[in-house]
Prior knowledge:
Layout: E1 4-7, H1 11-22, E2 27-31, E3 44-47, H2 52-55, E4 65-66, E5 69-74, E6 77-83, E7 92-95, H3 96-109, E8 113-117, E9 119-126, E10 131-137, E11 145-150, E12 152-155, H4 162-167, E13 173-186, E14 195-202, E15 205-212, E16 216-222, H5 232-246, E17 255-268, E18 273-274, E19 277-279, E20 285-286, H6 294-315, H7 319-348, H8 353-359, H9 362-373, H10 376-379, E21 411-414, E22 419-421, E23 430-435, H11 453-461, E24 467-472, E25 482-486, E26 492-497, H12 501-511
Parallel strand pairs: 1-2, 1-12, 2-8, 5-14, 12-19, 23-24
Antiparallel strand pairs: 3-7, 4-7, 5-6, 9-10, 10-11, 13-16, 13-17, 14-15, 15-16, 17-20, 18-19, 21-22, 21-24, 23-25, 25-26
Amino acid sequence: MLPVIIAGSGPTGLALAVALARYRVPSLVLDNQAGPSPRRWARSCVLPPDLAHWARLPGVAAEATGWTAWHSTRRGRTVRRVECDAAHDSPLHVPQHALEAALRAVVGEEPLVRVVAGHRLAGLEQQGDGVLVRAAETNTPEGRERRWRGSFAVGCDGARSTVRKLLGVAFPGRTAVERYAVAALGAELPWPAGEGGVHRGLPHGEVTVRPLVGGRWRLDWPLPADGGLVTPETVLDRLHGTLAAWHDGDVPAYELLDTGVHICHQRLARRWRDGRVFLAGDAAHLLGALGTQQVAEGLRDVDNLAWKLAVACHEGDAETLLDSYEAERRTAVGERLRAVDQALPVVRGRGGLASRLAGRSQGWLALIDDGHLGRGTLGAPARYTTSPLAPAPARTAATGTPPGAAVADVPVTALDGSRGRLRELLGGRVLLLLTAPGARVWDARHWLSAGLMPALATTAGGLPMPADVLVTEDYPGAGPHTLLVVRPDGHLAAALPGTERDGLRACVHALRGAAAPDTPPAGAASDTTESPGSH
C-alpha cells in the first residue's frame, strides 16, 4: 500500500499520521521544522471533551490540566460559575510543546510512519491512482530534491501552506481580528487550583485565566484594536496591575515563565479537496478569537479525515466518503467563523449602542465562556446535519444527541465483558451501542444468546464497515433497546429501534458512501422482529 504523504509536522500533521497508523495505513511526513518545538508555556491549547483521546497519549496526560470550574467576574464579583467534572466533561489545557512532543514520540515508535526530516514540499503532481511529491532538502546549500509516490497527500503545512498554493486555492478572510498579550507564570492565585475564568472590570480591562499543570497559569489580555506595539514592559504592567487587583493592591511573589502576543486571524480555504489532495489544520482555516481553539479544530479535521482515507486506502471506491470531509468540516469551521463574527461586536462593544446594550446582559458572558468550555456556537463539536453520509432511516428512535452531533461519553460494556467509556473506543470501527437496562449486572458469557444480541451480532458481522457491539445501561434521552450507530470520529450517524436490522444496514451503507441495499419485497421475511426474551 502506498503511503499517505503528509506535508507538515505540527500537531495536525503528526496527529494525522498517528490516526492513520491506527487504521493500518502507512504515511510519510515531510518535516520542515528545525527540531522539536521549544518549551513555551504561553503557547497552549484547550482540548474540549470530544478530543480527550488525544490527551491520553503518553506524555500528554501528565501535562494536561482538567478544569474543576469556570467562573466569570466583574469588578471582583462572581456573576457566573460553571462546575466541571474534571474526569469526563472538562476541557483539558495542554502546553502545545507537550502535545507535539508526545505525538513525535508516538510517531517515532510507529513502524507505519516515516518522518523525513529537513525537507520542504517543492512540487505536487496527481497521477490518476496516486500522487507524486517533490521535496527539497533544507539542511544542504544545494537544496537537493527527492521524490516520493503516495496514495493521497494532505497539506498540514500551516497558514502559508505550500500545498494550498500549489493547488491554487484561495484563502480569504480577515487578519488580526483580535490580539492578546499573554503571560505564563507560577503563582498562588486567590481561587482553587484547577479553576479558570474570565475577569472584567480590572485596571487593564479583561483577562482570561487558565490553569496549567504544576501551579502554573496562563493569562490573556485582549489588546486595543489600534494595533499598537506591545513591549515586554507592556505585558509586565498588565500582569502587575492584574495581580495587585486580585491581592488587595499588593503584587504577590510569582515566577514569570513566558510572555508573548497572540494574534487571531479569520480565514477559510475555498476548497479542502482537490482529487487526491486535501487540506487540514492551519492550511485550511485560521481562527482563535473569543476563545475558539485552532489546534482543537485541526484535531477535529484529523478525526474526520483519517477514517475516510483508511476506507479509501484499504477498499477503494470512496469518492462520496472523501467528498464528505470538505462538506462536513469546511461547513463546520465556516459556521464557527460566522459565530465569531456575530459575537465580536456584542462582546467587545464595537457595533454601536445596540451591541453595547446587549453586551451588558448575561448573554455575552456565556459567549465568552463557550469557547473555553467547548460548548455552544464557539466551542462545541460540530453537528454534521447536512452531511452526504447522513442516512434517512424509515424508523428512528429518540435520544438526547441529534444525528450528526458528538455522542455523550457514557460507560459501556463490550461483548467480552470488558468495561470502559464510549469515547475511549473511538478511532477504529463503527460502534453499535445498545441501551440495555441492567447491563452492568449481566454475565457477559450469556449475552450472545440472550435477547436482541444474537440477531444484532449477526447483522454487525455482515455490514459494509467493521463494527463492534457495545451495551450501556443508560444514554441521555434514549429509551431501553435503542441502538445508536456511532461513526469512528464519535458523531452519531443514527439512533434506531434495537430491532431495526434493515435500517441498520442502510445506515452503515450510507456511512460508507454507498447505495443502500435493496429492502426485502413486501411479504418477504424480515429480521426486524423483536427476538424472544429481549431485556
